[in-house]
Fold this protein.
Amino acid sequence: MNRLCCSRRDLLGRLGGGIANLAFLDLLGRGGLAAPAKSPLAPRPQHFPAKAKAVISIFCYGGVSQVDTFDPKPELMKRQGETMTGVGNVVASMGTPGGIMPSPWKFQKHGQCGMEISELFPHLSAHADDLALIRSMNALSPAHGPAIFQMNTGTILAGAPSVGSWVTYGLGSEN
């Protein structure tokens, strides 16, 4: 028998008492006789005056390649079909590696900023000057899992606060 709990009766008594205590505290709170328990997830006052009304982060794990959306690579068109060189021995886990393949989509510059956007996004291109596009991402790991941790937290190991945590901390609520 476990030393933490002597019997099933003792276990049920402790559990039942715990649930009853929670219910009793809730009733006292509703009657104004005790302060209601505050959720740690309840909105708090913001730490800094907010300049932004919202933060929208679009991250498509397994989504469309950056080469087909916002990051044109003109050199790929020049080297179409060529075999990759200078990268060592390529060992494919499935199939046979083909030649270099450029994006099948055309790019145009949009907005005053001149952001190059693929023809995949004809309506989004009208808002080029309102977008913040990061083209300088790199990671310590070529594996997607650790690289995603690094992108969202700054480290390749799980457990660090994510971008969403910092936004919530800075804005002070679910915003």
